[in-house]
Amino acid sequence: MSFDTIGLSADILRAVSEQGYSEPTPVQEQAIPVILERNDILAGAQTGTGKTAGFTLPLLEILSSEKKSGGKRPVRALVLTPTRELAAQVEESIKTYGKYTALKSCVIFGGVKIGPQINKLRSGVDILVATPGRLLDHIQQRTLDLSKVEILVLDEADRMLDMGFIRDIQKILAVLPKQRQNLLFSATFSNEIKTLAGKLLNSPVLIEVAKKNTASEMVSQIIYPVDKSRKRELLTTLIKSEKWFQVLVFARTKHGADRLASQLSRERVPAAAIHGNKSQGQRTRALEDFKNNKVQVLVATDIAARGIDIDQLPHVVNYELPNVPEDYVHRIGRTGRAGHEGQAVSLVCIDEKKLLNDIERLINQQIPKVIIDGFEPDPTIKAEPTKKTGGQRTRQKARPTRNANGENAPSNKNNSRRRNSKRPGSTESTGNNQQRRSNAKKR
Ligand code: AMP
What is the mean pLDDT of the segment spanning 172-198? Predict the structure, then answer.
């Protein structure tokens, strides 16, 4: 199928062709016509499949063809995303694909001043992209009217649930009109997603393009067994000897990410860190510098990396394996996107053997292991259990309170105060209204 016959009008097709897309990706081919027919959908599509255009293009088509007359523009489409980065990227796509339409869009998320967002909303917006916490701030402050929403999109819904957003989502649903079209995108179909879909969707069309928890075929994966104390040396050696540029490195903790970025920079490998304790400005700058090749390495924690969409990102390195095996799939999905090949390298020490087994069981595949000369693991070192860190998630139980970036917020009150005083925007996703209200005032 070509884009020309998929049901989009000339203004939108023109913007699509300017992006150089010759044909729709499988999720676009399936989702676009179904959404245009005004069906609800439940789409199982991982990031990198072209899912954003899969909902953005028909959304623009529907809203631009059904113009509402006179008065201030009401919000007619609401897109909810788990992270600020993803929200920003989705809105960027809306602007890109909608550049020849008269539709106005706006993105709102926490960690930045609320005032400019209020002004933008006041001026009238057709499509609103938001993270749940800041959206609720606006709802509570009555700076936003969602009573005219016709289409709701939940993007990366599994992540939103993982990050403890379910109550926020329920509160948002309560202020939306009952009659609306719902589009739910999720990389995985857990029982929680099925429950949410059951409540939210009306006779949905099921679209599934990527098999559950399968690693992209475009990504070659490799394990380099190495002692923990020599990981950094190995990483530097690989980056320098293989001449890797644009390397996204995953670290398990925020502190570890900072430390690794500084150490790499000292070794003349320009690096920046991105994680939940960085201000929005710092995060945006780090991402821009990485995209523009000003820094060679971006060290990220799992949640901060969510939504990072870089075309042709060639290398992902797991400096430490994630505690949650599904995160491995998300991590390596940052590369091998949109038909390009990518490489996912994991530096694995003896302590991570169990984590590796869990990952291999999940993806149902043995990852090739290669020992690099000079970095042979010391056989006398005994495994120690990996520490549970801020990135740890427990899937079955109620989620721990999380901060704006989905990283676990501290459970103890003293810690919590310390963190919040450092970063006033940090309770965006906690679901703690009182705290959110007081932070909103501060913001
Ligand atoms: P997404 O899964 O939405 O994060 O998109 C992944 C990447 O695919 C983005 O960088 C898009 O620019 C790109 N993309 C989206 N649609 C197409 C298409 N039809 N052809 C080629 N690339 C695309």
Answer: 92
DSSP category for residue 418: H
Residue 334 in contact with ligand 1 by CB distance below 6 A: no
Ligand 1 pocket, residue 25 CB under 6 Å: yes
Q: Does the residue 126 lie in any domain?
A: yes
- Domain coverage including residue 53: 3-208
- Chain segment 347-363, per-residue pLDDT in tens: 999 999 999 999 988 88
Distance 131 CA to ligand 1 centre (A): 22
Residue-wise pLDDT for 421-441, tens only, equals 332 233 333 333 333 333 333
Does residue 323 sit in the same domain as residue 201?
no
To test the pocket of ligand 1, the residue of 2, 52, 312 to mutate (highest count of ligand atoms within 8 Å of its CB) is: 52
| 23 alpha carbon – ligand 1 mean position (Å) | 11
Please give the C-alpha separations between residue 9 and each of 65, 68, 79, in angstroms, as whole numbers.
9, 18, 22
Look up the CATH number of the domain holding residue 305: 3.40.50.300
CA-nearest residue for atom 14, ligand 1, is: 50
Atom 6 in ligand 1: residue holding the nearest Cα: 48
Residue 40 resides in a domain: yes
Whether 25 is in a domain gets the answer: yes
Q: Side chain identity at 287, as an amino acid letter?
A: L
Same domain, 70 and 125: yes
Domain boundary among 328, 348, 363: 363
For 96, counting Cβ atoms within 10 Å of its Cβ (0-12 exposed, 13-18 middle, 19+ buried), the class is middle
Same domain (yes/no): 169, 189: yes
Tell me which of 363, 382, 412 is where a domain ends: 363
For residue 285, give Cα distances in angstroms to 37, 87, 332.
40, 16, 23
What is the domain count for the chain? Answer: 2
Distance 48 CA to ligand 1 centre (A): 6
Query: Residue 247 to residues 138, 153, 230, 319, 340: CA-CA distances in angstroms?
Result: 37, 31, 19, 11, 15
Q: pLDDT tens, 51-89?
A: 999 999 999 999 999 866 677 899 999 999 998 888 999
